[in-house]
C-alpha cells in the first residue's frame, strides 16, 4: 500500500478551494435553504442507531470532496489490510487485529501462518467457564467462601475500557462488586483495600506487557497485603489471575499458569477490552451479555468493511473530523454522552484517539506539516451544561462535538429521561442556531444598528447573544444494551482508524509514552541525590528540594 501525503492529493487541493467558500458558512442558512437537510445528512444503523450529521459545515459538494479524499487515500484497501492480519502496525511489526476478537463468523484469520481464531476461541471458552464458576459461587476462595469482589489492577487500555464498559452496562450487572485500581498513587489501592475481604476477593492483574510500573507496583502491594492476611502462598492460586500477552512475566510474578488469561501482541492495549483484558466485564455482566457485546462490534465491523463510502458511518465521521481539524483548524473534539452510565465514555476515547493519532511523523518518517489528532474531551450531559458549555456557546473557539443519547432509559424515571432528551435536543439546536430566533433581534443593537445611543436594555442584550454556528453530530441509540454499546465503541475505533490513515500516520504504536516512563524510573533511582546531580535541570532540582523540605 502506498503511503500518500494527504495534502499532496488532488482531493485535498479541491477541499482547500472549497474551504474558502465554506469558511464563512452559517448553519442557519444551510438549514433555511434546504428543508430536506436532515434527510440528506443522516444515516440509520440497523434501526438501532440514528447518526445525524446535518448540523455540520457541509454541503453535498463538501461531502463529495471529502469522500473523494477517502477514495484517493484508498481507505477501503487500508480496511482490507487491517482485517486480513497484515502487519500494518509497522513500527512494532505487528498486525492490528482487535476485529478478530469479535469475528463472530469465525472465519480464519492468519498471523504468521497460524489461524488466530483457534486461540481466541480457546481463551473465550476459558473465560466463560471461569466467569460462570465465580458468578454462581462455585469458585471458592482459600477459606472456602464464594467470591463477592473482583479487583482489576491495570492502567490505560487495561483499565479505561473495561471500567467504561462495566459502568455503561451497570443495568446488566450481577451481584459481584467490581473495583478498578490503576493509579500508582497509593490512595487508589488503599481506598479499595478498605472495602474488600481477602477471603472473598479475586485480583485480576491486567497488563499486556506485564511490565507497567503502576500495575506491577500495585500488584506487588496487593500480594503483600493478601499474604499478610492469608499467610499461605498457595492461596494465591485461588485469588490471583493475570490478563496478559506476557506469560513469562506473569509466571515470574507467581501467577499459576492455569490462572493466566492470554491475549496477544496484535491486540493494541487501547483496543484490548474485547480480549481477556475485558475479563472484569464478563464477570460483571456474564458471558452471554459479553457475547452480545461482541456481536454488536461485529455488526459494525461488517458495516465498516462492506458499506459503500457514501453510507459508511465511520468513514463519514472521520472525514468530518478531518474537515474541522485540518481546514477549520480546530484543536479539540468533544464527546457528550447524555447517559450517566456512559460517564467514562469520553475518557476512554481520549486514550484511543489521542494515543493513536497524537503523532507528528508520517508513515514515510517525515515531519508532518499539517494538523494530526485532535484533543478529545467531554463529560456526561446535562452536567457539562453547568460547567463548560458557556465557552462553547459564547467563547471564541470552534468546538465540534458529538452528542450521544439513548432513546430508552434503563430507569423507570420517565420524566427525568424526557427532560434529559429535551436538553440533548436543545443544546445541539442552540449550538447550531444561537438565540437569534428567539428574542435577541427584537431588542438588540443589530436591530437598531443606526442608533448611536444604545439604551440600557439594548446594551445588556449584547451580552446575551449566542451566535450559534457550532457544529455537532447527534447520535441517538434505541437503548444502551451490550449489543448496541458494542457497535458504538467499534464505530469510534474505526473512525479513529480512518482518521489515522487519512493523516498518513501509524495509529497503533505509542512511542511517545516511553520517555516519561524512563525519566520517572531514572528520577526514582536517583531520588536521594538529584539536588546535587548535574544531570538535572534547575527546575527539577528546585521542585525536589521543596518536596524534600516537607517530606522529612
Ligand atoms: O500508556 C501507554 C500504555 O502502553 C498503553 O498503550 C497501555 O494501554 C497502558 O500503557 C498499559 O500497558 P499494559 O497493559 O502493558 O500494562
Automatic annotation (TrEMBL):
The name this protein goes by in its record: Glucose-6-phosphate isomerase
Job description of the protein: Catalyzes the reversible isomerization of glucose-6-phosphate to fructose-6-phosphate.
NCBIfam families assigned: PRK00179.1
Location relative to the cell: Cytoplasm
GO BP annotation list: gluconeogenesis; glucose 6-phosphate metabolic process; glycolytic process
Entry keyword Lipoprotein: no
Protein family per UniProt: Belongs to the GPI family.
GO cellular component terms listed in the entry, alphabetical order: cytosol
Record EC number: 5.3.1.9
PANTHER family the UniProt entry points to: GLUCOSE-6-PHOSPHATE ISOMERASE
Provenance organism: Buchnera aphidicola
This protein's UniProt keywords: Cytoplasm, Gluconeogenesis, Glycolysis, Isomerase
HAMAP family, sorted: G6P_isomerase
InterPro entries, per the entry: G6P_Isomerase (IPR001672), G6P_Isomerase_C (IPR023096), Phosphoglucose_isomerase_CS (IPR018189), SIS_dom_sf (IPR046348), SIS_PGI_1 (IPR035476), SIS_PGI_2 (IPR035482)
GO molecular function, one term: glucose-6-phosphate isomerase activity
Pathway: Carbohydrate biosynthesis; gluconeogenesis; Carbohydrate degradation; glycolysis; D-glyceraldehyde 3-phosphate and glycerone phosphate from D-glucose: step 2/4
Location of the active site: 355, 386, 517
Major location category of this protein: cytoplasm
Reactions that this protein is recorded to catalyse: alpha-D-glucose 6-phosphate = beta-D-fructose 6-phosphate
Amino acid at each position: 500500500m502506498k503511503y500518500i501525503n494527504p495534502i499532496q492529493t488532488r482531493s485535498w487541493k479541491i477541499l482547500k478551494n472549497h474551504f474558502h467558500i465554506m469558511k464563512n458558512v452559517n448553519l442557519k442558512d444551510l438549514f433555511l435553504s434546504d428543508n430536506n437537510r436532515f434527510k440528506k445528512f443522516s444515516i440509520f444503523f440497523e434501526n438501532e442507531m440514528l447518526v445525524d450529521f446535518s448540523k455540520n459545515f457541509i454541503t453535498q459538494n463538501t461531502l463529495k470532496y471529502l469522500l473523494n479524499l477517502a477514495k484517493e487515500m484508498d481507505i477501503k484497501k487500508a480496511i482490507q489490510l487491517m482485517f486480513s492480519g497484515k502487519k500494518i502496525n509497522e513500527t512494532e511489526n505487528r498486525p492490528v487485529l482487535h476485529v478478530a476478537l469479535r469475528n463472530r463468523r469465525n472465519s480464519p484469520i492468519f498471523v504468521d501462518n497460524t489461524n488466530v481464531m483457534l486461540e481466541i476461541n480457546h481463551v473465550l471458552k476459558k473465560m466463560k467457564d471461569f466467569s460462570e464458576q465465580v458468578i454462581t459461587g462455585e469458585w471458592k476462595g482459600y477459606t472456602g467462601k464464594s467470591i463477592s469482589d473482583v479487583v482489576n489492577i491495570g492502567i490505560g487500555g487495561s483499565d479505561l475500557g473495561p471500567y467504561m464498559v462495566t459502568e455503561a452496562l451497570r443495568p446488566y450487572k450481577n451481584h459481584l462488586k467490581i473495583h478498578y485500581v490503576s493509579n500508582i498513587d497509593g490512595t487508589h489501592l488503599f481506598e479499595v483495600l478498605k472495602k474488600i475481604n481477602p477471603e472473598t476477593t479475586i485480583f485480576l492483574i491486567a497488563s499486556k506487557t506485564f511490565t507497567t510500573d503502576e500495575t506491577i507496583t500495585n500488584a506487588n502491594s496487593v500480594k503483600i497485603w493478601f499474604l499478610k492476611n492469608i499467610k499461605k502462598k498457595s492461596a494465591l492460586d485461588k485469588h490471583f489471575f493475570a490478563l496478559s500477552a506476557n506469560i513469562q512475566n506473569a509466571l515470574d510474578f507467581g501467577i499459576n499458569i492455569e490462572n493466566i488469561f492470554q491475549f496477544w501482541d496484535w491486540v493494541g492495549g487501547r483496543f484490548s477490552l474485547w480480549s481477556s483484558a475485558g475479563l472484569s466485564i464478563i464477570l460483571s455482566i456474564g458471558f452471554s451479555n459479553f457475547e452480545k457485546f461482541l456481536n454488536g462490534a461485529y455488526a459494525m465491523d461488517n458495516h465498516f468493511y462492506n458499506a459503500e463510502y457514501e453510507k459508511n458511518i465511520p468513514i463519514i465521521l472521520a472525514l468530518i473530523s478531518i474537515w474541522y481539524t485540518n481546514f477549520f483548524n480546530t484543536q479539540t473534539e468533544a464527546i457528550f454522552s447524555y447517559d450517566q452510565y456512559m460517564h467514562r465514555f469520553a475518557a476512554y476515547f481520549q486514550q484511543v484517539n489521542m494515543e493513536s493519532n497524537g503523532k507528528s511523523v508520517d508513515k514515510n518518517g517525515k515531519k508532518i506539516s499539517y494538523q494530526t489528532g485532535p484533543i478529545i474531551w467531554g463529560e456526561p450531559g446535562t452536567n457539562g451544561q453547568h460547567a463548560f458549555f458557556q465557552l462553547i456557546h459564547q467563547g471564541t473557539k470552534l468546538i465540534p462535538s458529538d452528542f450521544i443519547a439513548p432513546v430508552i432509559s434503563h430507569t423507570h424515571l420517565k420524566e427525568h429521561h424526557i427532560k434529559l432528551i429535551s436538553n440533548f435536543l436543545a443544546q445541539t439546536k442552540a449550538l447550531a442556531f444561537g438565540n437569534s430566533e428567539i428574542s435577541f433581534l427584537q431588542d438588540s443593537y443589530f436591530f437598531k444598528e443606526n442608533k448611536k445611543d444604545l439604551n440600557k436594555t439594548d446594551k445588556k442584550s449584547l451580552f446575551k447573544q449566542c451566535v450559534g454556528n457550532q457544529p455537532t453530530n447527534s447520535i441517538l441509540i434505541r437503548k444502551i444494551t451490550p449489543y448496541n454499546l458494542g457497535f458504538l465503541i467499534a464505530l469510534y475505533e474505526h473512525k479513529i482508524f480512518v482518521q489515522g490513515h487519512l493523516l498518513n500516520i501509524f495509529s497503533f504504536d505509542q512511542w511517545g509514552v516511553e520517555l516519561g516512563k524512563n525519566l520517572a524510573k531514572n528520577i526514582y533511582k536517583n531520588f536521594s541525590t538529584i539536588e546535587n546531580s548535574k544531570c538535572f535541570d534547575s527546575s527539577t532540582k528546585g521542585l525536589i528540594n521543596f518536596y524534600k523540605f516537607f517530606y522529612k
